[in-house]
Design a protein that fits this description.
Immunoglobulin-like; mainly beta; binds calcium ion; single chain; four-stranded mixed sheet; 3 helices; 3 domains
């Protein structure tokens, strides 16, 4: 067959080829304004000098969009890049029929798909997402949560307000100039892993027997102090403000008290102090008790020194007389 014009046909649903030119004697025929849909392969041309457009309009190919990144950026109804016909002849449709609306309709793609992020409570959040659009470039980025986050023209995401502990579900989009976009979902998890710190390290305490006791400890945390804790709740208690008081009348003696301050995420700081409850005797009067008072100790030492001196004198005397 030679010098035929094949036009305005709808060629669809072939399990093999929409058009198969398998004979080199099939020569100098022109295909135009045909519509190719849903064929296994739209066309194969092993013929000779066949044309797949009439010089101003070609055919509609349903795989033009994804196979050739088909676009009609100048909106003239003709695709801006040729459609290649399979087969030995190397034919091309130079004017493929294509209407993709204003500009083009290929969405951008993510360079790397955004992934979940973890940020320490109180720290600044910063994460970069990147998309590309080989046809018309990225126009802008968008984020669903603008109360807490901002995304700039480069895809840098930062927090614009304090993030509370928990998980933020974010959607980001990258738009091209024609409102085509790609979208991705990811989580930003804010967590507190830093323990509270003592304002002043708790110190050892002395209590007089049967006397109300109150000792205030204080810790702070970027998040907050959730509660205080002590190990000995038989004799002592600690309130929400860190004030330790006695429960009942603790016996005289030594108490090892561990004190902890917790933040809401269960991190804590700990300190162990000695609380000495003085005995009733000691409380009644200093120096009068059966124990050796500090005054007594000094007297004893002085007395000892005096005794040694006396012995020295006696020894010298003895040496002289002999
Ligand atoms: Ca065009
Ligand atoms: Ca267009
Ligand atoms: Ca695009
Ligand atoms: Ca903390």
């Amino acid at each position: 067959s030679r010098f035929n014009e094949i036009y305005s046909n709808e060629i669809r649903n072939s399990s093999r080829y929409g058009v198969n030119v398998d004979d080199t004697n099939f020569q100098s025929n022109t295909f135009y304004m045909n519509h190719f849909f849903d064929n296994y392969e739209n066309a194969v041309d092993d013929g000779t000098d066949n044309y797949w457009d009439n010089g101003s309009i070609g055919n509609y190919w349903d795989d033009y969009w994804d196979r050739y990144l088909g676009v009609d950026l100048n909106d003239d109804g003709i695709g801006d890049v040729p459609y290649n016909i399979s087969g030995a002849s190397g034919s091309q449709d130079l004017y493929p029929i294509w209407d993709d609306g204003p500009g083009e309709n290929h969405p951008p793609n993510w360079d790397q798909l955004p992934v979940d992020q973890i940020v320490e409570f109180g720290a600044l959040f910063s994460y970069k997402v990147l998309a590309y659009d080989h046809i018309s470039g990225i126009d802008h980025y968008w984020i669903n949560n603008t109360n807490n986050f901002d995304i700039n023209e480069n895809g840098d995401i930062t927090n614009i307000s304090a993030l509370s502990i928990g998980t933020y579900r974010l959607e980001v989009r990258a738009y091209d100039p024609y409102d085509n976009y790609c979208s991705a979902l990811f989580n930003v998890k804010t967590q507190d892993t830093i323990s509270p710190m003592w304002g002043t390290t708790p110190t050892n305490q002395e209590i007089e027997y049967n006397t109300p006791f109150s000792y205030d400890v204080n810790a702070s945390d970027l998040s907050s102090i959730d509660h205080y804790w002590i190990n000995d709740t038989t004799n002592f208690q600690i309130d929400i403000n860190g004030t330790i008081t006695n429960v009942g009348t603790p016996d005289s003696g030594i108490y090892y008290l561990e004190i902890r301050a917790y933040d809401p995420s269960n991190n804590y700081c700990s300190a162990t102090i000695i609380i000495e409850v003085l005995s009733e005797d000691e409380e009644e009067g200093e120096g009068d008790g059966p124990g050796i008072s500090s005054y007594g100790l000094v007297s004893l030492t002085l007395y000892s020194l005096a005794s040694i001196s006396l012995i020295n004198i006696m020894l010298r005397k003895k040496f002289k007389t002999s």
